[in-house]
Amino acid sequence: MRSTPSHRIRHASLLLFIVLLVPAPSRADWPASPSINLSVCVASGAQTGPQIVTDRAGGAFIAWSDRRSGESDLYASHVLADGSRDPDWPANGLALCTAPGAQTTMQLVPDGTGGILVAWSDFRNGTTSDIYALRVRADGSLAPGWPSDGIAVCVADSNQRTPAVASDGSGGAIVSWHDLRVGPASDIYAHHIRFDGSLDPAWPTSGLAVCTSAGSQTVALSITDVAGNAILT
Q1: What gap in Å lies between CA 2 and CA 165, rounded to an integer?
Q2: How many CB atoms are closer than 10 A to CB 229?
Q3: Which residues pair with 161 in a beta bridge?
Q4: pLDDT band at 229 (very low <50, low <70, confident <90, very high)
Q5: Is residue 163 within 8 Å of residue 176, measured between CB atoms?
Q6: In a 10 Å sphere around its CB, with 0-12 CB exposed, 13-18 middle and 19+ buried, how is residue 209 labelled?
Q7: Tens digit of pLDDT for each residue in 142-158?
Q8: pLDDT class of 9 with cuts at 50, 70, 90
Q9: Closest Cα to residue 79, out of 43, 119, 30?
């Protein structure tokens, strides 16, 4: 029997109905319940002091101090805009620094090319802290030229603490910190790390003295201006 126009219309309508019944591919989403949140890291030991910055694509980079090994190391993770963990990054975080000794008081910022720059206080060299930094690309890989466990920004005498980091807009960073090399009062020093993970040779080896006035100065905030320079408070 030949198909009439009405038969063809009913047949097409049935096919459309069947297509609409096919479930759409599932996708991750941010939890809507205040009692159920997105798990970023559930490794053993304590994970504390999280820091978070935008990935400028609707997601975020998160870094924290991690004691899964027994001492304080640094880990980070990338959460995508849809509320899922980036599959290119390890499930319980990427190890930023697992050097001996404690790594503490970190700060991170976007690197201007899709990744992050991280700076922290580091006790790998003994009982006093130094300043180290690292750059990680968006895919969870170490930026070319940057040493694993971070580049030594300042290993001067006594303590260098509480770093602030600002992107130079070209994949490098200007890191500042409060410095007790002439203690007991702290001064402000800074250094420039180039995009390739090397220290800028135009800057003093152990950092530029930003402020050495009487009394103590501590770093509260660092931002970058439109020319890639850092403004410190």
Answers
A1: 76
A2: 13
A3: 178
A4: confident
A5: yes
A6: middle
A7: 999 999 999 999 999 99
A8: very low
A9: 30
